Amino acid sequence: MALPDWPYEDDTAPLALSTAPVPEYGSGSLADLLPTLAAGLGVPGCTSAIPELAPADRNCVFLIDGLGWEQIRAHPDEAPYLHSLLATSRGGTGRPLTAGFPATTATSLASVGTGLPPGAHGLTGYTTRNPETGELMNQLRWRPWTDPHVWQPYPTVFQLADAAGVYTAQVSSPDFQNTPLTKIALSGGTFRGKLTGEDRMDLAAAQLGAADRSLIYTYYSEVDGKGHRFGMESDAWRGQLMYVDRLVQRLAEQLPPRSALYVTADHGMIDIPFDEESRIDFDEDWELGAGVALLGGEGRARHVYAVPGARSDVLAVWREVLGEQFWVASRDEAIAAGWFGPAVDERVYGRIGDVVAAAHADVVITASRREPHESAMVGMHGSMTPAEQLVPLLEVRS
Question: What pLDDT is attached to residue 1?
Answer without folding.
Answer: 31
